[in-house]
Amino acid sequence: MQTEIERRGERIFDLVDRHPESLFSKAGFYQRMMALSMRDEHFKVQLFRFVDVLASLHRGTDIVQHLDEYFADMRNGYAPLIRTFARGARIVPWISGQLLRWNVSGMARQFIAGRNPKDVMKMLRKRRSQGIGFTVDLLGEAVVSEQEANEYASRCLELLDHLGRETRGWTDPLGKNTELFPVVNLSVKISALYSQMNPADPADSIIHLAPKLRPILRRARDLGAFVNFDMEGYAHKNATLELFRTLFTETEFRDWPHVGIVIQAYLRDAENDLLDLLDWGRARGTRFAVRLVKGAYWDFEKIKSRQNGWACPVFLQKPESDLNFELLTRILLENESTITAAFGSHNVRSIAHAQALAEQLGIDRTRFEFQLLYGMAGPVKRALVEMGYRVREYCPVGELLPGMSYLVRRLLENTSNEGFLRAKFSEKVSEDELLRNPADLISQGPNGARHVEVSSDGASLDTPAGDTYENAPLVNFVYEQNQDRMQEALARVRPQLGQKYPLVINGERVWTDKTIASINPSSPDDVVGHVAEAGIPEAERAVKAARDAFEKWSRTSFETRCRLLERAADIMHRRRFELSALEVFEVGKAWAEADGDIREAMDFCRFYAHQMRLIGRPRLTQHVLGEESYQHYWPRGVAMIIAPWNFPMAILCGMTTAALVTGNTVIMKPAEQSAVIGAMLMEIFEEAGVPPGVLNYLPGKGSVMGAHLVDHKDIDLIAFTGSREVGLRIWESAGKTREGQRELKRVICEMGGKNAVIIDADADLDEAIVDTIYSAFGYQGQKCSACSRLIILEEIYPRAIERLLNAAASLRVGNPEEPGITVGPVIDRTAHKRILEYIDIGKNESRLAFQRADVPQKGFFIPPTIFTNVSPKTRIACEEIFGPVLSVMKARDLDEAFEIANSTEFALTAGFFSRSPANIERAKAEIVAGNVYVNRSCTGAVVGRHPFGGFKMSGGGTKAGGADYLLQFVVPRVVTENITRHGFAPETTPLYRDEFLGPR
Question: Is the full-model pTM beyond 0.90?
Answer without folding.
Answer: yes
